[in-house]
Amino acid sequence: MIPVTTFAGKTVAVFGLGGSGLATCHALIAGGANVIAFDDDARKVAEAKAANVGTADLRSIDWSKIAALILTPGVPLTHPEPHWSAKLATAANVEIIGDVELFCRERRVHAPDAPFVAITGTNGKSTTTALIAHILREAGRDVQMGGNIGVPVLQLEPPTNARHYVIECSSYQIDLAPSIDPTVGIMLNVTPDHIDRHGTIENYAAVKSRILGRAKTRIVGVDDEFGRGMMKGLAAMQKFVVPISIKQIVPHGYVGGEKNIYRTGASEAEDIADLTGIGSLRGSHNMQNAVAAFAACSALGVDDKTIQAALRTFPGLAHRMEEIGKKGAVLFINDSKATNADSAAKALASFENIYWIAGGKQKEGGIESLTEFFPRIAKAYLIGEAAPDFAATLNGHVPYDMSGTLDAAVAQAARDAASGGKGAVVLLSPACASFDQFRNFEIRGEHFRTLVQGLL
């Protein structure tokens, strides 16, 4: 745990008592703060009380005595409208921040030289985070990894100047971290997502860009218009940027080719890594992740040979292009993390002869953007709320079954793929959130794994 000492002796309100919220309460208490916590879910309030956290309805407290409101990232700060707790704090002129901001303040006070890598982007940030942490560990560094990737940042070990922090940051977390100041800030990409929480994609991109403003090294993916805009804006302010791309040559940056990574100068490129045969980094999207990780670890002083060796031992992440196994010639891939079309596109681009399981709670745009990949799909198996809309898009282009459930889809896809010829792949890459049938994408992916292992 990282005790939050910057609010010692002060009263702090906390709203949201899920995993990160409860961890925040304990970190504040350990640092000497007086905590008043609450949640709209009465069960979570009862759990906090049982864990010796002080609770009270924040609608009935004296806000003039509150030093800050620590808001869980899952609660709206601005759109579609601020949560009632945020409205109360704003009316009382109380700052609203999150756990990543608390971490940043503790680091500045206790170990300002602790290397801190912050990673954001619509897609790829979890893999990039895990890959950077893996490379740094292989290089012998003391590494703590957390944030949006699963371990609340305040549950990590306390900062020391030799301890490296590799933190995945969602747009929600960045929105609540006004002073975020990483040693290396990485912005991978921006595609439409979370518009309901930020109002417009421009607002969403602007929040993402904050990870770069105070960073010492700024790594920016320039393969979309928003990344290019961020690079131009920072350059106009004479702030140094390391561009990364898998689509074009960029000067003084890093470029991913079909299989190789290159470091570019003003006029020439140096071949520095080869991803051939690394199954955990299959696909162009993982090339971007690897390029970003190489750039970050180079900035932290890791030599090229060590990085290349570590790339080859990277095990990958669960639910992200995860190879579950093979039955005969059929490969089963768990890409449950593909919760939008852009993410699913990365998986569809990585295989031929695909037996595609898709659907769930649909996001804006559906799968219209995936039409270029339809020739790769032998058949689709549609599940969840999105199934009728997905069927309408596929109709006349890709044969499909209205499977309804993941259980039925796996059975049907496995049966058809068994006679599907060379290179058949059963791919769960839903292009949807999971919330219609599963609590989160992890549970969906675990269920897929269990079903496939039953077949194997």
TrEMBL record:
Cited InterPro entries: Folylpolyglutamate_synth_CS, Mur-like_cat_sf, Mur_ligase_C, Mur_ligase_C_dom_sf, Mur_ligase_cen, MurD
Top-rank EC class of the record's enzyme: ligase
Keywords carried by this UniProt record: ATP-binding, Cell cycle, Cell division, Cell shape, Cell wall biogenesis/degradation, Cytoplasm, Ligase, Nucleotide-binding, Peptidoglycan synthesis
A GO term, aspect molecular function: tetrahydrofolylpolyglutamate synthase activity
Domain Mur ligase central: 119-297
EC number(s) on file: 6.3.2.9
Biological or metabolic pathway of the protein: Cell wall biogenesis; peptidoglycan biosynthesis
Gene Ontology biological-process entries: cell division; cell wall organization; peptidoglycan biosynthetic process; regulation of cell shape
Subcellular location(s) per record: Cytoplasm
Domain (Mur ligase C-terminal) ranges: 319-432
Annotated GO CC locations: cytoplasm
Catalytic activity: UDP-N-acetyl-alpha-D-muramoyl-L-alanine + D-glutamate + ATP = UDP-N-acetyl-alpha-D-muramoyl-L-alanyl-D-glutamate + ADP + phosphate + H(+)
Pfam families: Mur_ligase_C, Mur_ligase_M
PROSITE patterns linked to this entry: FOLYLPOLYGLU_SYNT_1 (PS01011)
Binding positions for ATP per the UniProt entry: G121, T122, N123, G124, K125, S126, T127
PANTHER family found in the cross-reference section: UDP-N-ACETYLMURAMOYLALANINE--D-GLUTAMATE LIGASE
Protein task: Cell wall formation. Catalyzes the addition of glutamate to the nucleotide precursor UDP-N-acetylmuramoyl-L-alanine (UMA).
Family as reported in the entry's similarity comment: Belongs to the MurCDEF family.
Name of this protein: UDP-N-acetylmuramoylalanine--D-glutamate ligase
Species in which this protein is naturally found: Pseudorhodoplanes sinuspersici
Lineage, top ranks: Bacteria, Pseudomonadati, Pseudomonadota, Alphaproteobacteria, Hyphomicrobiales
